[in-house]
Every structure is written in C-alpha cells, then in structure tokens.
## 1
Amino acid sequence: MSTATTPANPKVGFVSLGCPKALVDSERILTQLRMEGYDVVSTYQDADVVVVNTCGFIDSAKAESLEVIGEAIKENGKVIVTGCMGVEEGNIRDVHPSVLAVTGPQQYEQVVNAVHQVVPPRQDHNPLIDLVPPQGIKLTPRHYAYLKISEGCNHSCSFCIIPSMRGKLVSRPVGDVLDEAQRLVKAGVKELLVISQDTSAYGVDVKYRTGFWNGAPVKTRMTELCEALSTLGVWVRLHYVYPYPHVDELIPLMAAGKILPYLDIPFQHASPKVLKAMKRPAFEDKTLARIKNWREICPELIIRSTFIVGFPGETEEDFQYLLDWLTEAQLDRVGCFQYSPVEGAPANLLDAAIVPDDVKQDRWERFMAHQQAISAARLQMKIGKEIEVLIDEVDEQGAVGRCFFDAPEIDGNVFIATEKDIKPGDKIMCRVTDADEYDLWAEAL
Ligand code: SF4
C-alpha cells in the first residue's frame, strides 16, 4: 500500500438558525458537502470556512442572525451567509462588510459554490472508485438525495488509493444518519441513495454498536439501517454493496417492498486471477450461485455493476472468462472502464504485463457490445409491465423519470408520453410500451 499522504479533508463549520424549513435547507447543504468529502466540524477554530444559515422572520431573529455572523467573523474570519435574512444582503453588508458571500433561502447550489470558492473540494476524482459522477451532483432536482453513511475503507484494492487518502472505515452514528434521512424526507425527498465506499461494511469499525433513533435502539449495521430507513416511506436505493454473506439479509427486505430491489455491486472483474491481483474484497467462486439464489427470493432484483478491462496481467483468456461470466450473471445495468493507473496505487508495482491501449480499447468495445445485448434483452422483458415512475423532468414533449431499475445520473430513463398534469417529484404508475439497451418508454395509467 502506498504511504503517500494527501491533504486532509476540507472542513466546514455550520450554524443553523431559525425554523424547521431553515433546518432542512441546512441539511441539504450539509448532505451535499459531506458527500463531496468535506468534514463538518463543531468549532469555529477547526473550520476552514463557516456557513451561517440565518433567520429573517422577525426583528429579534434578524438581530440574532447579525450577532451570530459577527461572532463567526471574529472567531473564524471566513463566513458565508445564507437563509431568509440573505434576501437583505445590503443590511448584512452594512454591519458586516467582510462576509464572503450572501445567498437567500433554498439557494443550495449558490451556497455550495460559495464554499467551493473559499475551500475547494478535493480534486481526486477517480471514475473507478468514486461515489459520484465526475460532473458532481446537482442539488436539483430536489426529490432525491444521497445519504453518506461512512467515510474511508478497510480494504486495499490494488488499483485504489482511497484507504491511503481517506483512512480506514469510519461509520457515522446510526442515529445521525437516520435523523438526516428523516429531515430530507420532510423536505420533500422521495428517494434516498445510500452511499459509502463499502456500504455492506457499515458499522464494522464500531462493532455494530447499538445507537438510538427516535428513542428506540438501532444497531449500526446495514440490515438494521435499511429496516429503519424503510419506515420513512420513500425509495431507498443501495450503492457500493460488496457481496458479503450478510447481504443475503437484504433480499427479503427487497422482496417485501421495504427497500428498492436494486443492488449496486462493483464486481470489477470475474476472473479469479485478475480479482486476486486486484485484491478485491468478498469475492469467491459462489457469486453466480448467490445471484441465482437472490433472484429466486426476489425475482424483481436489478443488479448494477462496474467492471475494469485491461488490468495489468489480464489475458485474452481472463477477458473471455469475464464475458462468459456476464452471460451467466445476466446483470441489468453495467458500466465498464479501461484500466488506467492511479498515481500512488499499489497496482502500479505489479509485476504483470501491461495491456496495450489498442487491446484495452478492443476489449472495452467487445465488453460493451456483449453486455448491451444482455441489458437490451432484459429490458425487453419489461414491455407490458406496470411500473411506478418517479418523475425527474417535465417539458412540452412529456415527462422523463425513473423506475426502480434506474439510479439517477448513471442508469437509464423512462420516457412518458402524457397529457397529465405532473411535476418533478411525482410518482405515477405507467405501463412499459418499448425499450432499447438503456431506456424504457411508457404510457401513464
Ligand atoms: S473497496 Fe477497494 S476500491 Fe473500494 S474504496 Fe476500498 S480499497 Fe478502494
């Protein structure tokens, strides 16, 4: 493992004043910053920048807001103001000319952009291992939100520098995660996307300690977290799940409709030799049998995954093994990357033949053609079925949404021709009328 050290995570302090609506705004901003790798700290001294979410409802609230801004400037110096009082920028700047930015209520993107200006997010995006797409995640549409449950990772995959950069797994307290989820749902979120570097390892670092949520005990463990999230009445989608044995516990929850029957498992390869060189966790030759078993319990289950082709030492035989495995596994949603070395990753030191670029490209194209045929055939089977669709966008041509098959930004869409008066965030029942390799077309019922 590389011993290269990289800068610590940027740190944000946050003061949230005002009513529950302001608290919800704070939660959305904090959720976004946390997901981008910022640490949220509780003292002015520890923060690289302080955000004050103000209340401007009555004069006393405005006075308190101005006082807190003053305190933050005195104690820290780098202060961004948002919230209801932000609409009175002139009044704030008259008293505190040194504030760095002022935005109004629900201007999530502007606040996050202002934080980026003062303390940039970490620039170590890697498409093979990162939790979010390179373009980042917009805070709109507002009907889905990412819920980060832990930081760091206990594994040592040879192509990855996350453990040396972000350290070992640190699980967030289960009560905090569930409180955040509850506030997001109160703010109108209809879909929670659970993310971390290794979602199935949640709680390992704290020995699955029992926490509390709404006065009841809840274990810091993936299954118990999912059970609790399922009581919030929104879609719960799991990303970055490794196939540890206890993942089997989730399948009955999916079959019972408690969480979405969707598992994002980054398999990365299938050849035992390549997986060993990659040092991937939780892989064994029974994975295909487990997938079969999961589908017997929950026939609806959608499995998404990503793969790497052209890893050092990958032979044509290994690659053919991967294609055959894909034929057997019948995964629904698949992404593929050509291997490229990450600075500081142990894979760079492997004593293995480097796969030439033209061979990587050829394998990537063959992989994509192979999997597209599988994905297209699986989507064809959905034609005629009734599905619930969460609407993401509406324009004059109709509506675009997603059903449980599709995570936002990375999977497909459902295109709906409808005259109905619907808006983003609505859930409507549809019948599937057509499909291609990625997307579905449907009519509203
Ligand atoms: S599981 Fe492997 S790829 Fe994922 S963060 Fe940990 S070391 Fe990196």
## 2
Amino acid sequence: MSAPEDEKYPRKILGYMEGFLISKTLFAACELGVFDHLEASERPLSAAEVAQALDTSEDGTQRLLSACAGLELLVVQQCNDQVVYSNTGLSSRYLTRSGPQSLYHSIQYNSKTIYLCWHYLTDAVREGRNQYEKAFGVSSKDLFEALYRSDEEMVKFMHLMNSIWNICGKDVVTAFDLSSFKIIYDLGGCSGALAKQCTLAYPGSSVTIFDLPKVVQMSREHFVSAEDKRISFHEGDFFKDKLPEADLYILARILHDWTDDRSLELLAKVYQSCRPGGGVLLVEALLHEDGSGPLTAQLYSLNMLVQTEGRERRASEYTSLLTAAGFTSIQVQRTGKLYDAILARR
Ligand SMILES: C[S@@+](CC[C@H](N)C(=O)[O-])C[C@H]1O[C@@H](n2cnc3c(N)ncnc32)[C@H](O)[C@@H]1O
C-alpha cells in the first residue's frame, strides 16, 4: 500500500519547522518601521528608497520587502522597470504604529520578550516552570515583579494587553447581557481597554480598574482619558487587600496566570465581596473538553508555562473553581475569537 499523500512530502512539518522564520520576518519589518514608512508615502516605494529612509542595507531591505510580499503583507508591482512596494489593507490597519487597531505593540512584545522565553520551552517542559531567570536573569519569586522588571517592560506589557481588546474586546463584553450590573470592577484591569469596551456597550454602568499601584499610575498617565468619567481607578493587591463591593467583577486573563490554589483563593475573595445577585465574568481562552484544540489556546497554555505560574483551562475546570468558591448559575459562551467568556452568579 502506498503512503498517504501528506507522508510522501512532509509539507506540514516543513511549515512548522520553519514557522519562526515567518514570525521573525514580521517582527523585523515592524521594528524597522517598514509598514509605517510605506503608509506615510504617497506612492509605492522601491527597496532602495525604503533602505535610504530607514538607514538599512539595500540588499537586506530588498530581501525583507520581498519576503513580506510573499507573506501577502505588502503589494508588489513592476513600475518602469522598477519593483515597488506598498502596504496591503491588512498591514495598514494592523501593522502600522498609529492605526486604531494596531498590533504593533503586541508584535514588539512577542519579539522582545515572549520569543526569548520560548527559546527555553524545552527546559520549561522539563522543569514545569517559567523561564524568566534564564531568559532575563530575573530571580524574583513574585510573578508580576519579574514581569514588571522595569517601568519600560511594564508599559510594553500594558500595550500588549491593550491591543488585543481593540480587536476582540467587544465580543467578550457582549457575550452576555451585562446591562443589569451597574457597579463593575475590572480586577487586574491593566490599561483599561476592556473597561472602555464595557462602558461603550453598557452606557448605564461604571467600571473601576483595580490593579497594582504602579500599573494604575501608568494606566492613568498613558491609557485612560481623564474625560472618561465612567472609568475610575482603585490601587490595590487583589490577593492581599479587601476587595470593594460590586455588582460584577471582571477577571480577564487573570486566572490563567495562577495555579488552581491561587485562583480559588482569589475567586473566594470575589465571592465574599460580591453583592447578592451579582456576578463574576471570567474572560479566558478556553480549551476544548476533549483536548482537541483550539490550537491557539493550546499554544497559549504553553506560553503560560514559559511565562507565568498558570495555564489555560477547559470550561469544566473553570466551572469547578467557580463552584468551589460558591458561585452558581454558571454559563459559558465561546466567541469564536481569541477569548471566551464565563458568567457566574453569587
Ligand atoms: C495578564 S494581565 C491581564 C490584564 C487585563 N485584565 C487584560 O485582560 O488585558 C494581569 C493583570 O493583573 C494585574 N495583577 C497581577 N497581580 C495583581 C495583584 N496581586 N493585584 C492586582 N492586580 C494584579 C497585573 O498588573 C495585570 O494588569
């Protein structure tokens, strides 16, 4: 019997083996400002023109632009015997620094931080723990002290968190009708991007961003406009401090940072502070119950191993944690995008 077609030529494996070449091409083009420069230009540009403007080698730039064209991130045209390049609609929208849905900062963080941690993935699997010490020489036992090892790193992380909610924040805050919850606390609310989506979707509600003092200061300074009267701030440590009373607590990408024990500790505190009839909204990338996917959540779970103390979980695992903390009426909504939502009631 002859081998199946995909065994005669290992196209899939070759693609996986060389997948990092694609990521690095994207990282380099963003870092060098290729998409920003082409966006600012009134006409398509040759590699020589781009190289001159970016102060890069002509040969290297030509190869980079060509690879970006191959990845369908640039449009390539022949014009008077010259090859010239311009942005695709996708690149203009997501890869330039200033676009409203820019992924530029996410790409930077992937390039400068996550990629370095993933260099030690094999060690992380062997040891079952994050690799901050090897990747960055940080030995702090406190996860967020390591993550926020400088103000610059903290702002970069906040930009990473921010950019995803510009793309799929609306999907998670509207996965359930939250309009009956008037006082909302976004625990670990970071840059406030999800809080903004919440106030847009629910004009009758106010949202308070609860986060570590330094994060709140940065959020005030760099991310949330003072004119946004329905968003306020509360500095605190959700493990150590008493949580303020509220109708709804949002925990978006919080529990995936922590072990089951710490997650339960936090959910039990939320339950204690929650008004009767109030609730908690978990926003996480849910794994399928049978382990079959989604691939993004499976890879994110490895990312949690390399970078945090936590993991991505199945809906049933979150349900068990919520039930153990005292919550009932647990509902799960998959959004079909990166993150899903679970609503539970006190
Ligand atoms: C993975 S980020 C998620 C941010 C945000 N919820 C989002 O989805 O974009 C985790 C957040 O929890 C905050 N955080 C971590 N430990 C905390 C603590 N002990 N008390 C309050 N906030 C904390 C971090 O500063 C960060 O903003």
